[in-house]
Amino acid sequence: MNRIDKKFLELRRKNEKALIVYLAAGDPSLAKTGELVLALEKEGVDLIELGVPFSDPLADGPVIQEASGRALKKHTTLKKILACVAALRKKTQIPILLMSYLNPLLRYGLPALARDAKKSGVDGFIVPDLPPEEGRQVASLMRGRGVHEVFLLAPTSPPKRIRLAARASRGFIYYVSLTGVTGIRRKLSAEIGRKLKGIRRESRLPVCVGFGISTPDQARKVASVSDGVIVGSAVVKALAAHPSMGAAEFSRRFVRPLVRAGKGEGR
Amino acid sequence: MPNKNKKAWSRLPDSRGYFGPYGGRYVPETLMAALEELEKAARAARRDKNFRKTLDGYLRNFAGRPTPLTDARRLAKLLGVRRLLLKREDLLHTGAHKINNTLGQALLAMRMGKQRIIAETGAGQHGVATATVCALFGLECDVYMGQEDIERQALNVFRMRLLGARVIPVKAGSRTLKDAVNEAIRDWVTHVENTHYIIGSVIGPHPYPAMVRDFQSVIGKETAAQMKRAGLSDPDYLVACVGGGSNSIGLFYPYLGSKSRMIGVEAAGEGLHTARHAATLSLGKTGVLHGSKSEVLQDGDGQIRLAHSISAGLDYPGVGPEHAYLKKTGRVSYVAATDKEALLGVKALSENEGIIPALEPAHAIGYLLKHRSLFKKSDSLVVCLSGRGDKDVEQISKMTGTKSEARNPCLAGRQAKQGSKFK
Fold first, then answer.
1. A201 burial class (0-12, 13-18, 19+ CB within 10 angstroms)?
2. Strand A173-176 relative to strand A152-153, pairing
3. Residue B182 to residue A57, Cβ atoms within 8 A
4. What is the pLDDT of residues B158-212, one digit of tens each?
5. HEC-encoded secondary structure of A103-120
6. Which of A33, B111, B149, B381 lies at a C-alpha separation of 20 to 30 Å from B277?
7. CA distance A130 to chain B (A)
């Protein structure tokens, strides 16, 4: 069974919500990314998203753009990230998804990528510039290897598109909380709960919410209406501000409050 | 056979926005509904007689259509061909073909009830054409422009501001056109409910490549009508420069079913053997950039490479998906001209015809000069002169330096005997 499915089953049994953390792989270094994954798991993080750096991240706000730029300067490549995950698999079974724009994946070669992702222990892909219509080939290649392709839904998605993404997604559905790019926002949209109900009518998959969630309070609110909370920019920004802080201390200081808030709700 | 061909070409793209393997819609989910809405609106507008009439009125009475088809006799002689016709898009209001598209898209935006317009711009021509139509129709206008381009194109920045547009500097990435497109897409993702994004070329997600082509194909349709009226048969060659590819597709598209041969000239920058060029079709690989699948300049890891060209309008690492398809099918030949060849093109056209071209179409002229031997004495050519050179004179004088004082080897007529020395 795919680690993502296993994780959500386990969470459902415990009546808990998932806390998902995004890291820009290779920022500040791949070694640090690896240490962070292990430290985050210890703090109770349920799933990890590793961002594959891209020169033109058009769905990302400044925080992740800059992190992506720093990772590229360190010559972080998809190949090295796969190797990093493979190394991590000796120490952890935490579900790991790669979040990547499509072009680096195409360049790698999709059949080879599906094979190598499986071999390295990658559990899924999230591709922000790949809507379900265009994602059939990627999804079927990944499915063939037991790797999940997670599609996204947005506040602007009409019912027809909700059905489309619900049918195409595996593992969970990624709901984008706002019309905009990734980043830290002061306020959450009041619509999230209502939109999630619409999605739930179409799918039994877990629905996790990302984009704009940065504080424990926001995490708590989103957790109360969803199956999981995805935090990206807030963690990436804190990491950029404390590049030399040890992974354990960083996770304790910046991620523990989010985990408590996000997971506490369901208990 | 030509007739059958014509039908096949005009049916592209397919319902999913594909030209063969190229095209599609590779954007964040947030934009998908807006693209579907835009596709519907564009289709309805195309069928609406009133819309066509309104657009036609603005093209005629505001932009200055039809543009002349100038018989460039001295340059034809220099090239050793029977006839060289220049489609004078440089004479349009704002100085380039870009206004054909911005007028169409602004009218479409109003039809959809969108009051705010955003655009990206490199050299500033598309930005100026967008700011112009927004002033004309009373729409709010924000133009994204790379910080580096803002510094290089101060005059166009001033023009846009004078027209009431806000010019937003883009400081991310390489601070040029590619990053301006990224930033415009980010803005659109954020404000999609009330904002229309006027893309300036035949790039981006479906329906943009087809829609911009349709607005620009007035170039080729008009050319065909003008030639017919003058009793001329279809040209042997159609030649145009290709950056994103909007002026070239505008000229080519109505001729795809004809027997005319077509040449698209990309920017070879400092040479195809160097890393500093913008010859996407010559040296790119299939990939996804800015919402569609096409040929893209990229490295082995799929990171987008920086393009380079003396002409900001061609300085782009992608190209319209329809061009990628026309190349794949062999219907159009794609070649490249260097910065230097483009400069020779500027001089040749200026000194022989009294027309100072923009650096972009100067690549087409430069290519013809260099490859004169490929053409027969009996050949007739149409070149799309997509823009005028006013915006470029400062850069041209910088690039040519004191050499601009020296006698140009590509002067015909007055020094026709020197013509043979030209290489």
1. exposed
2. parallel
3. yes
4. 999 999 999 999 998 888 899 999 999 999 999 999 999 999 999 999 999 999 9
5. HHHHHHCHHHHHHHHHHH
6. B381
7. 5
So what's the ipTM on this one?
A: 0.96
Tell me which fold the domain A3-262 belongs to: TIM Barrel (3.20.20)
Q: How many CA atoms lie within 13 A of A141 on its CB side?
A: 16
CB contact under 8 A, B172 and A65: yes
B376-402 pLDDT tens trace: 999 999 999 999 999 898 888 888 874
pLDDT of B1 > 90? The answer is no
Global pTM reads 0.94
Using the Cβ of B25 and the Cβ atoms of chain A, whether some distance falls under 8 Å is answered with: yes
Is the preceding omega at residue B66 within 30 degrees of 0, hence cis? yes
* Average pLDDT for chain A: 96
Q: Which residue, A121, A137, A134, A129, is CA-closest to A164?
A: A134
Determine the Cα–Cα distance for residues B142 and B164; give it in Å rounded to an integer: 9
> Phi and psi for A95 in degrees, rounded to 5?
-60, 135
User: B65 Cβ partners below 8 Å, 6+ apart?
Assistant: B59, B92, B100, B218, B222
- Dihedral angle over CA of B59, B61, B63, B69, nearest 10: 80
CB contact under 8 A, A179 and B288: no
User: What per-residue confidence (pLDDT) applies to B234?
Assistant: 97
Token pair recorded at residue B136 = 């004309």
Q: Helices (H), strands (E): how many in chain A?
A: 13, 9
Q: Judge contact between A20 and A141, C-beta under 8 A.
A: no
Beta strand extents in A78-206 (DSSP E only): 96-99, 124-126, 148-150, 152-153, 173-176
User: And the tokens for A114?
Assistant: 């599906």
Instruction: Decide: helix, strand or coil at residue B22.
Output: strand
